[in-house]
Specification:
Layout: H1 2-7, H2 14-17, H3 30-36, H4 39-42, H5 46-62, H6 68-86, H7 99-111, H8 113-117, H9 124-160, E1 165-170, E2 173-179, H10 180-205, E3 207-208, H11 224-231, E4 235-236, H12 240-245, H13 248-274, E5 282-283, H14 302-325, H15 340-360, E6 365-366, H16 368-375, H17 382-391, H18 396-412, H19 422-428, H20 436-439, H21 442-447, H22 457-471
Parallel strand pairs: 3-4
Antiparallel strand pairs: 1-2, 5-6
Helix pairs in contact: 5-6, 5-9, 5-11, 6-7, 9-10, 9-15, 9-22, 10-13, 13-14, 13-15, 14-15, 17-18
This protein binds arginine.
Length: 473
């Protein structure tokens, strides 16, 4: 024993500093101490840890485990510790492993005996699970606020361009005429579902593990409901083994985040394409772009590119957490300490990505002339012509064939459909008359899509209005 101590000299005999030191006969290996510590990254949950401890202390006073004075001194000291942390004066110690033991140890140093009673009926296992849930709950609210800002910017673009025509693509080939407003509202819908998913995830996040103690519960008659109420939890967990061990709520959050980033990556890809010289559909604001160190003419769409790239990190975090949880036996295992970095990185990435989009979108400029030119290339009204034939009694499959032949002719003659003569049209089908040229107009094409969810400006206007009143913007 003393041999080992000489092998691993420790300036302050760390085993005696550890809250769990009693059972141990030698100090923790110096590198193991570093390797097993989480304080470098879990300290960001200090506010949640303190709020949880204060609620727990008040409850312990309520059930008579602490006196009112002991409770008061704990609550006040924790407030003071919070200020130390916020003021950058707190000395985070790796030998105290994590945020929980750092704060508790400071508490004991500050107030002595009462501080030592705080951990009654509690374990770091239910404590950390509670902290993470509080933290994720708060971050979901922040993310949602940024998503609302982004959605509101999208609505403004949709509003401004409810009448602006553009080509709609399938297979990235010109397919039909749509409006920019319609396209923007597609983005809006994606984000609405992302917000709904996060709101739903929050229901399962907002359940309180505290009171589960290490794994089995505790003999102290804890008033869990009282703690939950103080901390704003909707419910207390039903099973202590489950509550201390499962991180499915974090996985669920990361899966919501993955879908969100998948959506942002799609928007990003479109912006990158649209900003290119091949499309020139949009002009991105200079202050959201960067130049090249060698090519003086370059203006690179770094923000959408980077957000597109960041999706990979978020998907990776989801897989990390799934793999972390897979095959874990009940109840808490140290593996779970690995939940935090992927989770926090996901939160930071989501917040940054949505924020930069919300900042950038109000300043993107759609190039209406180029969009108008683009929509008049590529036979975007061919389907309208087929629908016209159907209205004149031709079966859709025959109409499709007829229009296909007309398009073939136009391609051969290097023309767009409205440039074919009535005679040429009639050579394919005798029911075609002069009014066909109305149908081949791009604006008429867009306006005709009156079906719910369709691209007609009237429909899109309805969607925008409904969205505005729901969003309150
Ligand atoms: N730092 C630990 C974690 O993040 C806290 C829980 C530790 N519990 C334990 N029994 N060692 O998971």
């Amino acid at each position: 024993m003393s041999d080992n101590k000489t092998k691993h000299p420790s300036p302050e005999n760390s085993q005696e500093n550890k809250p769990w030191g009693g059972r141990f006969t030698e100090s923790t290996d110096a590198f193991v101490e570093e390797f097993t510590a989480s304080v470098s990254f879990d300290q960001r949950m200090y506010a949640q840890d303190i709020a949880g401890s204060q609620a727990h202390a008040r409850m312990l006073a309520k059930i008579g485990v602490l006196t009112k004075d002991e409770c008061d001194s704990i609550v006040q000291a924790l407030d003071a510790i919070k200020q130390e942390i916020q003021g950058g004066e707190f000395n985070w110690r790796v030998d105290l492993e994590d945020v929980h033991m750092n704060i508790e140890s400071r508490l004991v140093a500050m107030i002595g005996e009462p501080g030592k009673k705080l951990h009654t009926g509690r374990s770091r296992n239910d404590q950390v699970a509670t902290d993470i849930r509080l933290y994720v709950r708060e971050q979901i609210a922040f993310i949602d606020a940024e998503l609302v800002r982004m959605q509101s910017a999208i609505l403004d673009l949709a509003d401004k361009h409810v009448d602006t025509l553009m080509p709609g693509f399938t297979h990235l080939q010109v397919a039909q005429v749509i409006t920019v407003g319609h396209h923007m509202m597609a983005w809006f819908e994606m984000l609405s579902r992302d917000r709904a998913r996060l709101a739903d995830c929050k229901i399962r996040v907002n359940v309180m593990p505290l009171g589960s103690a290490a794994l089995a519960g505790t003999p102290f008659p804890l008033d869990r409901e009282y703690v939950a109420q103080q901390l704003g939890f909707d419910a207390v967990s039903n099973n202590s083994l489950d509550a201390v061990s499962d991180r499915d709520f974090a996985i669920e959050f990361c899966s919501c985040a993955s879908l969100l980033l998948m959506h942002l990556s799609r928007m990003s890809e479109e912006l990158v394409l649209w900003a290119s010289q091949q499309f020139e559909f949009v002009e991105l604001p200079d202050r959201f772009c960067t130049g090249s160190s060698i090519m003086p003419q370059k203006k690179n769409p770094d923000v959408p590119e980077l957000v597109r790239g960041k999706s990979g990190r978020v998907f990776g975090n989801l897989i990390s957490l799934l793999t972390l949880m897979k095959s874990q036996v009940l109840a808490y295992n140290k593996d779970n300490q690995e939940d935090k970095e992927p989770l926090f990185d996901t939160i930071d990435t989501v917040l940054g990505s949505v924020r930069v989009y919300a900042d950038m979108l109000p300043h993107i400029i759609f190039n209406e002339d180029n969009l108008a030119q683009a929509v008049n290339k590529g036979y975007a009204t061919a389907t309208d012509l087929a629908d016209y034939l159907v209205a004149k009694g031709v079966a859709f499959r025959d109409a499709h064939e007829i229009v296909g032949r007309a398009v073939r002719l136009a391609i051969d003659e290097n023309k767009e459909l409205p440039q074919l003569s009535l005679q040429q049209f009639q050579s394919f089908c005798s029911v075609i008359s002069e009014d066909v040229y109305n149908v081949l107009q791009t604006r008429g094409s867009a306006e005709s899509k009156q079906v719910i969810g369709g691209t007609s400006p009237a429909q899109v206007r309805k969607q925008i209005d409904a969205a505005r009143s729901k969003l309150n913007v």
